[in-house]
Amino acid sequence: MPPANGEPPVWTADRIRALGTVTDLTTAAAIFGLSRATAYDLAKRGQFPVAVLRFGSRYRIPVAAILHALHLPADDDGPPAAPSQAT
Predict the structure, then answer these.
(1) Where is the Helix-turn-helix domain (predicted)?
(2) Are the CB atoms for 39 and 25 separated by under 8 Å?
(3) Residues with Cβ < 8 Å from 53, sequence gap 6 or more?
(4) Is residue 75 very low, low, confident or very high in pLDDT (cuts 50, 70, 90)?
(5) Which residue has the higher pLDDT, 44 or 86?
(6) Residues whose CB falls within 8 Å of the CB of residue 26, separated by 6 or more in sequence, listed in order
(7) Which strands make up the sheet holding 58-62, listed edge to edge?
(8) Which of 25, 55, 61, 62 is the most exposed place for a label (fewest CB within 10 A)?
(9) Distance between CA 25 and CA 63 in Å, rounded?
C-alpha cells in the first residue's frame, strides 16, 4: 500500500522478502524504478533486469532473483559473520 502522502513506497529488503516466492511484473518494476510500460516492453524483449517467468499472458518474477540483482541476501539473516580470531 502506498504511503498516505502519495509518494511511491520505499522498497526495503524486508519488504521485498515479504512479497513471498514470486511477485507480479508491476511490483518488480516499481522495485527497480521502472514504469509499468517499460517493464512490459523489457519483459517482451527478454531484457528485464532479472529472469521473468511467463504463465500464459501473466508474468511472474522470482523474489530471490530481485534480491540477488540488488545484492541483498535472500534471507533476513544477512551474510555470514567473519570468523573471530582468538588470541
Answers:
(1) 27-68
(2) yes
(3) 22, 59, 60, 61, 62
(4) confident
(5) 44
(6) 36, 39
(7) 22-24, 58-62, 53-55
(8) 55
(9) 11
Amino acid letter, 60: R
C-alpha cell at 29: 518494476
Rounded Cα–Cα distance for residues 65 and 52 (Å): 9
What's the confidence (pLDDT) of residue 38?
Answer: 98
Q: How many other C-beta atoms can be found within 10 angstroms of the C-beta atom of residue 56?
A: 5
Distance, in Å, from the CA atom of 74 to the CA atom of 16, rounded to the nearest integer, reads 10
What is the DSSP-derived secondary structure letter of residue 1?
Answer: -
E strand or H helix that includes residue 60: strand 58-62
**pLDDT tens for residues 15-42?**
999 999 999 999 999 999 999 999 999 9
H or E element that contains 40: helix 36-44
